[in-house]
Queue: 4 jobs
Job 1
Amino acid sequence: MSNSHDHYAVLGIGEAASAQEITQAYRRLAMKWHPDRNRENIEAAEREFKRLGEAYRVLSDPKQRELYDAMRLSARSNTNTNGFGGHKPFWSNADPFEARRPASERGKDLKAKVTVPLETLVSGGEIEVKVNGFATCAACAGHGRFDGYAGCDRCGGQGYTDTGYLCRKCGGAGVLFQPTCVVCRGKGVIKQKQTLSIKVRAGTPSNATLRVRGAGEPGPSGGLRGDLLLTFSVKPHKLYKLLGLTLTADIKVDFVTALLGGTAHCEIFGRTVKATIPAGARAGRLITVPGEGLKHPSTGEAGDLKLRVVLDLPEGARKLTKEHKEILKSMFEAAAARS
Ligand SMILES: [Zn+2]
Ligand SMILES: [Zn+2]
């Protein structure tokens, strides 16, 4: 039975057979091997009938036949030149297309973008993500194959047309070999909306891509699932802005410190951060505090904290006497006159 999966050998025809010869050979053999006509030898008949169906399906479709011929040719030349005796040519498989999708092939990765509160990235938390996912087709257990017989849709299972001619589609058999699962159309998966609960670790940068293993598309033919690649869009926050690992916030600086330089403090997520203010800092100026932004949960890389100067009045500003005000004015006037 070494030629049992050679479609030409199965139909007993040569490689140069015309479309008509292929159909005639199939009709003749399908009649001969129809399981209903071989009840005493039903297993062998079913096997043979299935092989005939496969051979006919491939060879009767010009595109598939072309591909099959090309595979056959390349398999033959490989066998001749590579010296691996007994090496099974890959077209020996029942389905020439099987070679392009091995059973172990991993499913596709899915992509999703989710809007998260800034705090979730800074402090960590759990988020819910709705994805247009895929589930394994229950009808075929993810194999995408049906591998059985279904009634011929052309003749309604009669084998003959209303006018008494042999049905051209099933060759009079009344049934057709149905290699593909009708529920998933051979894909092995069906679309399904899913809600996933995903843990986000503290310090996750806003531009991160989270890879959720196994939450992607199931692989064809029951292969491993792909991953879900999750990206974020951060909800606007009243006090903070997050860009990657860099956190931006406002810092109140009284104008004396802004003028002369010094230190100022601010609260960042319950933490007191000290910043050095250079002399002459104008309102809106960004002061960088290195390493005080987010700390990446995997790499440990620390982002910067950028503090935007907001000018504030110093303690006691409202209690200035007339004399104090005069002194202040004269100080600035004298300084201006020097330049
Ligand atoms: Zn039919
Ligand atoms: Zn299916």
Job 2
Amino acid sequence: MKWTPGELVAFTARVIYEVAERGLTLDYAFQKVKRGWRPLDSFKVFYDVSFDAVRHYFFLKFAASRLFGSSGAKAVAKAWFIYKADQMLYNRDMVSRFRKRLLKRALAAPGDVLREVESLRGDPARYLSIKYSYHPKIVATLLSHLPAEEVEKLLDAGNKTWIWLRINTLKADVDKALKILEAEAEVETHPRIPFAVLLKSSKRPVQYLEAVRRFVAIPQDLASVYAVLSLKPEPGDRIVDLAAAPGMKTSLVAQLAEGRAKIVAVDLSQKRVARMKQLLRRVGAGDAVEVVRSDSRKLKTRLFDKALLDAPCTSSGAFTKEPAVKIYPRLEDAPRYSRIQRELLKNALELAGEVVYAVCSILPEEGEEVVGSVEAAPEKPLEDLADPYGRGGVGGRTFPHIHRSEAFFISRLRALR
Ligand SMILES: C[S@@+](CC[C@H](N)C(=O)[O-])C[C@H]1O[C@@H](n2cnc3c(N)ncnc32)[C@H](O)[C@@H]1O
């Protein structure tokens, strides 16, 4: 069934409301609104527009207040149509007619609003927050660690979508997988990681690509790949993954160890453990991994050679994937997470001589300060990682403007025995 631009704006406004006022993630909000909507042939455009509107929320809210004298969800969705519809909707006539209609009662011209945003440059925190649409707390955090020009590049790059695929060599070799992929998509292989490819364009959404449906290629952010590479898994290793579900990194551990390591995957959440068992089976790592539900802070077990700790965290570095993080970064939860991270890391060092600690967070409280708090020798595990916070190389970071990835902190620690 056909949709109208008015309907698109109304739908987007509902999603914006669910994210901005009720704190839902983009996918939850989208599914909730979709359930109450009339059936459409495809909701793809509605999803893409909702994602884009949430991603640009702070700019659109500012623009909405100037154009319509309101910063409510409906006005924000209308502002999306005025500034962004051209880039996402193919029907130029429809866009221009509806845009004109929206602007009939506008209080300002769209160009004047853009000039007003540029005039804020003298106040970098406010300017960057509005221009690139990040919560002021994210901008302030980054500005306290990095020069303003670098923060601007980071925030700009964080508004792009980078889709990395990991060739699953448990299912097919790289050449064969690339052939299957290239029949439907244009990809770029990472210069130093032959099994990591960036999706440049594709004929269909990533989850419908033949290679992805057959688990020959698995969508996995490059930052996660770096975390697992830092562990250097090898055949014969005894490895424990202490916060493993849903198992994406565990399955790469199995892949890099060529299916010949003894791997134990632990997670506290029953639901996520069930999902992990299913995922590991599907990607061909089921036989290589023993799955355990346990609290990894208390786990007392045999010794391992290596431990991976992809710790629970604020996810404040996940803004390239989850645009709701840009509106609600939940940085105030950092002290609680930091406590759990320290407890988990301390026990990881009891269980294994070598530990890789990773978090998807921009905060030193969850990164550099956690690895600095335990009795161990932390280091930057890979040359490719950056150390922009200048904390003496106790770990490395990934950033969208440098690595075209999510923002992670990764450290390798050796237990002092
Ligand atoms: C960042 S996620 C892990 C993602 C996973 N490594 C992957 O790549 O698919 C953090 C995980 O830690 C788990 N977790 C939280 N507290 C835990 C604890 N005390 N012991 C074990 N797992 C815990 C959560 O259930 C969650 O699945």
Job 3
Amino acid sequence: MADLAETFRSATRIKKWSATIVANAVSTYALDTVATAAGVLLVASGQLSGIGIHAAAIVLGASYVLWACGLSSSLAANWRLLEMTGTSSSILSKLAYDLTGRRTMRVGIRRFLSAAGYVVFELAKETPYYIGAFGLALASDAVSGEEALVFLAGANAGAAAYEYGLGWSTRVLLQKAVSYTSFENAWSPAEYLADYYSAVEVDEQHTIAFFAEAAQRIPAGESVLVFGVGPTLHHVFPITTQVSEIHLGDYLRCNLDEISRWVEQDEGAHDWKPFVSYTLQCEGMADPTWEDILHRERLTRARITTLLEVDIRNDRPLADAQRLYTTVLSAYCADSATADLEEWQLYMRRIIELVRPGGTLLVAALGKTHSYLVGGRAFPSPMLGAADMERMLRNCFPEGALTIRTVHVPECAQHGYSSIILAAGHRRRPTSDK
Ligand SMILES: C[S@@+](CC[C@H](N)C(=O)[O-])C[C@H]1O[C@@H](n2cnc3c(N)ncnc32)[C@H](O)[C@@H]1O
């Protein structure tokens, strides 16, 4: 599985670099064509002929302001492109993005260096115009210094329009890409496992530790529902010892099939041992042995009794199996299934309604992002902040029984997010129960 994961990662890296190299070549050619044509047209139009060298220099200065405005539009789009797809129309910008990401530097620094790479490359593209325009002015009488400056001003105006157009079209394309990525057509459990679960990454270190701590307070000996479990088991291990039965629900059959493979100990099943080991450490076992890990795996397999096909878009997400649970855990599901905040609120209400009054809800969500990447494709997320989570949970969970934590995980920027929100709440009992 580790080899397969590495193969997937290498193939994804090659795809992203190939796309960047092609985009870089096309955009260099297009920019050259537009800028040269604009420069030649401005000179040929004669609109500025005879304005004198000083006025031409002022026009050139103004054209740089225009160029900077266009550049700021394409820079913003380039960052979004890098975050959502890991590709860019500038080789240097992608190089800076990849190198800083590998050293897990802060997002702000990564953004600054990617932008610097982009700008340096755009400036380098200006050089031929200067050599061409001034070379011609010096070497021949056919082109005057004034004409050379007017040509450069025109080329800058063309470049500004090009950069603005590039930024706009990139944003439109990305918006379309997000709305077109659907779980039904584009979700691959193998790619998800390869991208996110080859090792215990920082976001999962925090999530598992949070669930392991919260699990100590959930009522013992009852059934638990893990809603939107995906093809994963890492959030199940922390709750296994507390509960009598584990019911796992997901929208996609292919995800549940991946779980079945693990339960049945198929040869191709994902290896969750590093996650079991980490869970045991969170529970206080300093150095879990192989036998400790196998024991938790055996217990988990024995307690998984039901796999459910669920759909959060339905009023009754569990369909015929609709019922209440004493504990419901839902990690990166409602927030990873829509980009719309109101839709997320509706989905969360449906998940909360599955929790018996007095029961416990454990939730994890991506923070402040429009999307996250699986296999290079962007899946939606509604830009959640901790305040959204608090507003959502406050009504059903009394203040003292609600924990909400935002954790910054800049190391995860390559997946499309840099923070996560973890929440645990014990649902209010009806007044008569108290
Ligand atoms: C990002 S994955 C999270 C999986 C897992 N909980 C984890 O932490 O790795 C999002 C999950 O939401 C599920 N999902 C998407 N649309 C859904 C829907 N309409 N109803 C229920 N689950 C859905 C997907 O099948 C997928 O498994």
Job 4
Amino acid sequence: MNYKIDQYFQNVYQEAAENRKPQSVSKADLSSMLGDFQEKKSSRPPEILETKELSAYRRERYVFHYTDDRPGPVYVLTPDNGAKRHPAVLALHGHGYGSREIAGLTESGEEDEEGSGIHRHFAALLASRGFKVFAPEIIGFGDRRLDEDKRRSRPKSCYKMGAQLLSVGKTLAGLRVQEARLLLDDMAAFPDVNENGPGIMGFSGGGLIAAYTAALDERIQAAVLSGFVNTYQESLWPVEHCLDNYVPGLLSGAELPAYIGLTAPRPLFIESGSRDPLFPLEGARKAVEVLGDIYENQRAAGQLEWEPFDGAHEVRAGRCVSWLHEHLSFQ
Ligand SMILES: [Zn+2]
């Protein structure tokens, strides 16, 4: 006997699509669905933990204070190129061992000489190309896992954190977006960061945070989303992703590209690996089509760029680096 369970869940998707209101989504809708995070920003300034001079940039590890009860480490990578001010980029890692994975380090904090893995050390790469890069340890990873997960060497705390936040009407995606936005406040206070606003780059789970942060926060001047842009239909619905991808009610409001499109008309660059099993190329293509219409409607078609590349679920960090140079001020 086939109990048609799969069919039922296909119907759930279809019903959500058919019952949507035709008007487009708003920033207020997205913000509200992510959960109510109104805690006051801590007034404590960042404190430096360690400094190391490398050939192309200086690597510092700070503690930033998001709220008074929520500190977290952040790598700050400053180019050694003689410039007085640098364009800033907020760099958000995906699932893995945390900020060290994009800052050029191994899990235990040694220089990673072996190879850069799927993250391509993209924070270090951007710093070596003239950007002042802020790479926070995203809550749930690395030094910011729950104590139990650290003790048992579990790589992430997403499930428990996500489930607990859902129980009080909040989401882990929302908490991470809140922290990214609070970090923007501290980034702007660095005297060697240029005043024209930062860029943001995120990969995979970090791509989700980058997408919603750019959508909600007009301070972001240019966004690079790697290994994330897709549709529910092709990715988030059929693929078993981490719980932190799911925001109650989101799909009832619109398909995923509509929310990513809230960044328009500001510049948006998308990378998609042709063999990415988690965010399939066909879903990326459909999402980029929808985003193309959104940008066209805002007379900003030239501000959207897509680089599909021969690769799996991994950062490309190719064309997007010079694209960030074009879109962030070096004054
Ligand atoms: Zn996760």
